[in-house]
Batch of 4 targets.
Target 1
Amino acid sequence: MSIQQSDVLYTAVATAENGRDGRVATEDGRLDVVVNPPKEMGGSGEGTNPEQLFAAGYSACFQGALGVVARQTKADISGSTVTAKVGIGKNGDGFGIIVEISAHIPNVDTATGRALLEQAHQVCPYSKATRGNISVTLV
């Protein structure tokens, strides 16, 4: 379900120059980075790249969603981490991405951890935005 413009609480604004081989910066100046293709894709690999930025955003957002569901279920997720692996490769339309989300949740058993991941995947805004568009695997 989409949100309406009147429901927006915050809008991030970033501008890229020269696409995957240039620079990207946010309007407020808090993020200003050089972007270069990774060596695996023929680039210099000296800067960051869109996949790293997406992985950083997705992992942070998913960790937040994990916190929401943990509070609802009274699960202890202290000391937990969430890692997002974002791969890029060729597909029938040019290029596509694939994501693997893994979590380390030391204070819960495996079954509880898996249930928390599944619940977080349902409420995470990044998961909602990508659902049905890219492959996301939970580990």
Note: The two ends are 26 Å apart (CA to CA).
Target 2
Amino acid sequence: MTMRRTPPVVLSVAALALAVSAAVAGPTPAGPAAVTPASVQKYAAGVHVASYPVFDARGRKIGSKTWRWSDVGGDCCETYVAATATGRLLEFGGVVPYYSDDRGKSWWKVTPTTPLYNGEGALVAGPGGNVYGAGWDAYTGDHLQGFRYTKSSAAWEVSEVPLKSPFFDREWVTYAKGPFTIGGTKYPFATIIRGGGVTKSLEVISGDGLDYSTPSIPSQEATGSEFPLFRPRVVKNPDADFWQPNPGTYTLPLNAGGVLLFKNGDDDFPCVAARLDQTTAKWGCVRLPWIPRGTVRQDSRGWLTEVVPSAQSLSLALSTDGGKAWKSIDITVPEGRRLEGGSDPLHDVKVNGKAGIAAISVRADDSAGRGQDMVFVVDVKRAQPRLLRTYYLGKGDINTGIGVGTTSNRFDFCSVTVFPDGKIAASFDDSTTPDYKKLDTVPATKTDGHSSPAVAIEL
């Protein structure tokens, strides 16, 4: 179902803008179409233990590492993981969210009142253990929903998001510290959902994680010829270790408040970077002290980390001064493998400043096309980063493809997270992971013998 790479845009940004204008020409909704509570039930997930190889910084095998892995959640092609500051593990790759408070020994399933069939979702952790997510289901009316967990009340809530582009495939979620003024109301934060199969030009913004009645088209809002210089402030914020989004958002939530959006391949974007104005909720182009080329994170110390992947290596650069000066290392993929994804290599990166750890998840093919999931663990305690080790996840014994054109096994994106103590959870796929038909929700089309990604937790 998921299309990670979009085909050539057949609906122009101008046409999309007209469609959006028409959609909101009438009275703007005061809130989402409906907000309902979601129930939580204990979920009997398959839980396993396995050991996989570990390589040192020079690519030499030095032993093995034991992992707990689970087939919880996910769908045919993707498993999305995140962690909160309280240590809760979150998963929302498929129809609904799941979570575990004991590193994957036991799981809980979050079920909305809306009947769902074969959806997909993503989420991020907010401050204090709060959670914000989005789920899209093509098979029950092409509808999009916002998910919010409020830790103080231990309550999950779900909202309908009626304003979106058609076929809102593979939605990604960004959380940004405020304050933001949206529709004349001031909010302490903003969440942004980006998605779409035909085009990802249209995004929707919320000030409470549920009401997504505010549309945004960054490529049209970010205009002008003279871009002001913007320097990310080096400010400590413990929440920044956990609200880092998927690389597909192309966003950088800022510790001091606000968010940056980087140029990406889906929009006719007029500048290298834009900043969301916190008083108007509109994007404006800015200049940065550096030219971003990859996935950028800001950790709890306020330090910046940028990862730029290529076919057989990755560059990780670290800046302690808001992007003015950088120190970097190159990481070579072991055993001469090549990262899946071609010109847009599969990867995810999370940085935990308190633990001093950066984790980069990739999937790399051998000469026969068999994909091996890996996590590069980098020491970022000091200004000069240093590769510590490389974890293999799974057996690396199946071929996978990306996107709806794939007829065999699919693995559409990588996902990794770092717990408060520096340990890791990540997605992987091999011959031992279950056939999708054995999971919670049977898809519309699926053939026997296909595996689906699972989540591995470092012990």
Note: The chain has two domains: 43-111+296-459, 114-288.
Target 3
Amino acid sequence: MTKLHSQQNYKNLIQDIGLILKQGKRQAYQAVNNILVKTYWEVGKRIVEFEQDGKITAEYGTELLDKLAQDLKSQFGKGFSRRNVLDMRRFYVAYPKWQTVSAELSWSHYIQFIGIDDKLARSFYEKQCIKEKWSIRELNRQKNSALFERIALSKDKKGILKMSKKGQSIKQAEDIIKEPYVLEFLGIPENHKYSEKELEQKIIDNLQMFLLELGKGFTFVKRQFRISFKEKHFYVDLVFYHRILKCFVLIDLKINEINHTDIGQMNMYLNYFTKEENENDDNSPIGIVLGKDKDEIKIEYALGGISNQLFVSKYQLYLPKKEELEEEVKRLVK
């Protein structure tokens, strides 16, 4: 065996051991997490059963939690603050059947879920966390931006109920469109006067968060994609490729109200991509004109007769009022 060959084999050995250790750590973390979640569920169950057996009222229930937290903390340590004990109880109340608790989610995830009163929204976020492997930070961002409500408002009652049980299903262009898109992570003050170029640069600087807002399946291709006709050049602000729908997604940014010329220009871009950029196995491209405001009636007429997959959506630079969106969804599912 040559020295070079020996060195290469040794490097491979180190890599193999590294992979084994990483896998072991992941499995150990998962096992510890499952035990922790199960333990806290059992604690919550025992508290609720004790309350029910003694027919403890809300007033005395508060006293019970105070005393219980104090005694458990003195015997078992800091993990039993009043807040933690309350969360264990709330966890069991929200998930009275252990079979409904997923082993793929952490205790930190469930702490977030039990704060969601609406069962449909809670179930949706659970399914999305499992599907897209959201971190706690990503889950919080999607909750705060009312993702469930924004998607639900584009569906009928049957579609909302299905989405809450199975998460978001992406099978057609309409499934990736939101109204509105929330870009609070750009950090642009609401009254700040900014240009389209500045907006685009902010998005590029925060591309990871923008991809999270766009949703599952998006990969970034290019900014300012040039399209040339003889001596004249046009530029698509942002180009993505959607791995699930297998198509290009073109986004044009507008800082004012979207008009018919913006729609016509996007339609031209889509026609160009269909003929010049698509490969044989690519599906028809999707176009999104994303603006600060839009007139629904004008947009309806402007889109009339267009065969391409072209959508017009608004964006906002601040988090939406969740209460208003929640009320709209409740009306839809009545």
Note: The chain has a mean pLDDT of 89.
Target 4
Amino acid sequence: MDGDFVNREMELRSLGEWWSKRGARLGIVWGRRRVGKTALIERFAAAHRTIFHTGGRRPVADELRTLSTTASAVLEGRDLSLNPFHDWADLLESLAGAARTTPALLVLDEFPELVAVSPELPSVVRAVWGRIASASKLRLLLCGSAVRTMEAMSEERAPLYGRVDLSLLLHPFRPHEAATMLPRLKPSERALVWGLVGGVPLYLKWWNQAKSVRENLLDLACRPGAPLLTEGHLVLATEGQEGDHSRQVLHAIAAGRTKHNEVADAIRADPTRTLDRLVALRLVERIVPVTEDPRRTRRRLYRIGDNFLAFWLGVLDRYRVEIDRGLGGTILPVLVQHLDDHMGPRWEEAFREHLRRAAGEGRLGRDVVAIGPFWTAAEDPNEIDAVVLAGRRREAVLVGEARWARSVDGTAIARDLRRKAAALPRARDDLQVAVCARETVRGGADLAFTAEEIFAG
């Protein structure tokens, strides 16, 4: 991959398989803002005959006029400068005719912006698709960042229900994927950057690899109008929906209200639907002890699942007003003091993500069924950062602990883990112990992990 596009191999494969099927094809690509939807589609579209249009909530006539100009290279036999598309049906049927023998791709990016000025557009797509589906090789990709709007388009009773051949939800990069965007940093530095800005490609691009952590925080967070300082507001504004409680729920969880009833008390409303949507976006993570059935247990906690949002809500936001007043330089040392506390939970999740990746590659056995944290009742606290369950009986085959420290005593941690493992409902006799540190694990552990393995570029 070139320097401007990395990762997304699985998504590109899905798009390629979708493209290769017969007949007209309709796909949806969606995900939160900044996650790289447009970059992915541009990469895919570069190999195909493509009309790419980004909705701008302009008057319909202007949107169609712009599309007419873009489509002129594909649509032969019609002078679109003199006879532009006069409505959406004309656009779709004309392009379907131009793609009878040779496939063509129409991309409508920011599709919710088009629907805002043409509410009938999904119904028009459905009606036209019914006529052209078997007679054309037109491929239509609808893309957008208004996640709930995109998700709802293919739900039952929605106009496009049953018509969509591909629904591709993009998420931020996982640790090893984020590492590929930070090749000039040491693995432990990549871990820190991922822990602060998460896996959103644009945020990772903002990080200047030639500068220190302090210099980057000063540039990106400690100046009035700095990118990371303002981005938190944009995330809260764009990921919320009219009538829901996204902003209040996120603030409540960041403030330590991690139980459903605590969130409900904080916002004075039922947060269930909002929590479900934020979990689907991976802005919030719903955590249950890995040994329990998430459908039945009441022992569930919520935490901010997006690293950047956790940093912004938990650290940056409390200093935002004074940074805007010009005190960023003196606040910077205080931000740095927060980093280790912030990184603890992020490092644990990076460890669990690495174990999931290892399991997917068959390195933890062939019958792994779940990986997650474990804890016991508050009156007898017993926490394990990662437990790997295997087989139909969901037996523990590995327990692990991750510490955001440069070097740890693996022997002592392994001994403590084996003691904690006695609280697990079922464990195999050959239970393994894994210890994770930033740079070095000293002494005995069955498996040792560091940032060098987790954030290998």
Note: The first strand starts at residue 25 and ends at 30.
